[in-house]
């Protein structure tokens, strides 16, 4: 009895982990046939509803492929052949537009069809696996789960499937498909001269990439300085906010400070104001004729017609933006660090005081290392957020001051704001896509490297 | 001995004074721009920039004009559009985030680590890079035909990929002791019941945080809103509505009203934010202790 029980649980675990291909190889004839006729293995063994559902999915897919799918794959390869043309209508005696192919839509439907096909392939594996599991259960003489049992398992062993279904389909529709679509655009010549629906665009291979990285092209002369500034910006913006925020939190938390709640309230007030409001206000305040310059004129530091070029001088604009970002970011990091600071074991500090360490040494030897240990994920997120910090740059300086050496970029443009200008203003979608890919590669490498080394990734069950 | 404590006291006093003065100066800097917004919203003189800071005259007209239905820009309408979009998308995204966080924290299945890595990578793409593709997909499904549908589309865009932001909540779930779950399993609860009746009630602070972050999204985003809503001013959300007021054709007339509008939306957001502040700190820094 005991032996049988052990055997049973053994089957269950190995069955749950088996992949579609392995089950195909090990399965019997009916299991193998289930790869062609979905749900066959279940239908034969009286799991009627489950089998019929699988069969239904297969039929829907085949119907889709015959009516739409194959055409869209063909269009995806050519990206459309017929250009929109004018044709003379004899009956009405006027010229009419004959709609041509829309390369954009060809590409989009192609991507959708490819994803459906991938899903179909996965589903074929599921079908084989499901048939194999049933086959094995019969061989070991176990009860075959009815449809009711299947439904119940969605709340138990298969809970992850039911919980993940909606979020994953959301991510699929609004992140993955658009992403693949944009990556593909980087390999076409979809720029301002090839706008749909009037014109077609076509595959060009790696031409856009080589233009971006080539020596002394107008594109690469923009790309490298912009990348440079993006990284400088991200480093300064992340660490200035982090360190100042932490210092502020320490100062407010220290023993002697009174009215702690009041001080926190003052700083948190600026978070409560929507970010674009404070950014647009800051832009007004530091404008050529804005209050700061007006005040300096009134005091007499600068002449009555002079103005400090807060946003029009390239170096000063960069400094101004970083400072304003401190204004915006410090309350946030103060808020996040406050809670963690209070959790630092007090005996560490007492021991340090006994050893005669002063406040600065304590900060660098105890507080900072401890905080860095805990908040690495937070730092990575905010670094990534800063590389993609569209709002601050776009709303403050708009990327300006404009520069003639650059290809449609200003001196304070980040890669993302340049991407925005290229796509929305300039309609060079292919170049925008190339930049997006570059940004992504930088960030992906960076965060995979750092994130995998953090404690919260390696040891996620430490506190459970 | 006595002297020593006295000098220590004095030193502490000096330290504290310096700290308070320092905080006072910083606080002043942080509050100043907010005062500027409030003052300008009451400014009686129209037009844009002035060469002075304190307004010459004060009026409530800027606020009254915002609700003037005859006006070209309908503030009230924008406000309710944004409110509806914000409520829907925050409920949806909180649901998504909780599901993904629970699955990754408590359930073990094939592909789990792989999925987490993929999610990490996907979260790194600048969202609006694929904006144009999203626009085409929505158009393909016919969501951009009518105004109200555009708002639905906006909700989907805001909440669609929110499942990727599960990490904070997962970190929180990780700190809930597993023994609580096991006790429930022994009593015959399914995993679904544990999720609904134990994990969710225990994680109130982090749920409030998630709800609030996604509630704030629609109020401050304007890139997606602008691309999807286009020129349909009636269906604008507050952020692009206010941004429109600063456009060249409107700025001369609407400049002070813009600030009035900013003050008005800042008040509810500020109140919600301050109310939930303690949840935020709790939610980010830890979970059930002990």
UniProtKB/TrEMBL annotation, chain A:
Q: Name one Pfam family in it.
A: BPD_transp_1
| Domain ABC transmembrane type-1 positions | 227-450
What Gene3D superfamilies does its record include?
Answer: MetI-like (1.10.3720.10)
Quick check: keyword Transferase in the entry?
no
> What topology in the membrane does the UniProt record assign?
Multi-pass membrane protein
Residue ranges of the TM segments: 48-66, 107-128, 163-187, 231-253, 265-286, 319-341, 362-380, 429-451
Main location class: membrane
Task of the protein: Part of the ABC transporter complex MalEFGK involved in maltose/maltodextrin import. Probably responsible for the translocation of the substrate across the membrane.
Q: Which family does it belong to?
A: Belongs to the binding-protein-dependent transport system permease family. MalFG subfamily.
State the protein's name: Maltose/maltodextrin transport system permease protein
From TrEMBL, chain B:
Keyword vocabulary terms for this entry: Cell membrane, Membrane, Sugar transport, Transmembrane, Transmembrane helix, Transport
Can you quote a single GO CC term?
Answer: plasma membrane
Localization per Swiss-Prot or TrEMBL: Cell membrane
Q: Name one GO biological process term.
A: maltodextrin transmembrane transport
Q: Its Gene Ontology molecular function terms?
A: ABC-type maltose transporter activity
Q: How does it sit in the membrane?
A: Multi-pass membrane protein
Q: Does the keyword Transmembrane helix apply?
A: yes
Q: Which InterPro entries match?
A: BP-dep_ABC_trans_perm, MetI-like, MetI-like_sf
Q: Where are the transmembrane segments?
A: 21-42, 78-103, 115-137, 149-169, 206-225, 253-275
Every ABC transmembrane type-1 domain range: 79-276
Q: What is this protein called?
A: Sugar ABC transporter permease
Gene source species: Lacrimispora algidixylanolytica
